[in-house]
Amino acid sequence: MKPQVIIIGRPNVGKSTLFNRLVGKKLALVDDQPGVTRDRRMGDATLAGLEFTVIDTAGWEDEDPETLPGRMRKQTEVSVEGADAALFVIDARAGVTPLDEEIARWLRTQDVPVVAVANKAEGRAGDAGLFEAFALGFGEPVALSAEHGEGVADLFDALWPLIGAAEAEREAAERAGEEADAEETEQGPLKLAIVGRPNAGKSTLINRMLGEDRLLTGPEAGITRDSIAVDWSWTDLTTGEDRPIRLIDTAGMRKRAQVVDKLERMSVADAKRAVDFAEVVVLLLDATRGLEHQDLKIAAHVIEEGRALMVAINKWDIAENASSLFNGIKAALEDGLSQVKGLPVFAVSARTGKGIDQMLKAAFELREAWSKRVPTAALNRWFDDALEANPPPAPKGKRIKLRYITQAGTRPPRFVVFGTRLDMLPASYERYLVNSIRAALGFEGVPVRVVLKSPKNPFSKA
User: Is 11 flagged in the annotation as binding?
Assistant: First the structure.
């Protein structure tokens, strides 16, 4: 089960608006009049990669338990019992009211972590109410505008220590207990897209894998227009295991300036959508033409979309000066795609079948790294070692403090580093962290995202 986060507060403070913001849909009715929400509503929320179930509740009113408002309050009380965290919402423009103080006193008797949220804090009108919220006893309140989406990043900072680490450890424990079965069930067929310039041999390569002329091929460039998906089972010769793959053939991508035909533009757009659908993308090069600028642009697009990328050099059976060609392409990829180190590169032949099994085996390994989650404890042990080996600089004598790191998501792996003065951290040190994550934690060859987050100063005028 995902962690459960309950939204609680008096009527008309914006609880349902916050609920809609977190689930990304207008599921809960919202109106200026108080008391619109009566029943608890649950929704799946995602906040910067942190997944949880959010529960919207009726406004808390001090009424007789037998009345409708009293029964609504009872529903709220019951939902708090099973929650992993509570968002206590006040109206920053109205300030802390006696009813807010009553709710706070009740929450302090409950066994649930509480985050105070000062909603409607956009502009300066909510400053006074924000400062009053410190007196509620739940630490630094989060200044938020649920209607406009302001302060959502600060809400993530407040929620992660309460539910994020526990969720990561829970997922790690589940994977350890279910290993092989869970991997097959969760991962499903490997979604493998073949991309590249026209006439690189993409359709011919897929036909060779399938052992049949499933896709139309020929010497003319641009035969493929639609992105074609074919389900197939590949036999791993080293283990004898049959592994499901969904192969996706795409149209060739030429330079944008050369694409003038409307149909070709649609084909290229369809190929880019196929990249979004894929898990692992093979950039197919033509050994007779080497690595060109357009190939680097295609590779950069794949990485920007967060897909796992590998490079295959086709027509290897007719390549000249094969060894120098291979080394030259690898060096050019290192220089041209500095955002991802250690891209797998394979020499293949769609005509003879050379190198295809090795490429497919590596594709499954690459997906595993792309989907990998590092337990929080192990991640922070690496983080401490990395900081000790290379401490962050102190620009202009001001110390940059890196406190801890969490993994916010996978596919691609995303990490959040928390600390102070992170806006002063040099880009070179960010690259050091990313490269160290890849080398030490098994993320070679996959895009890694690192986000820096500093706590917001409530007294800042910015």
Answer: yes
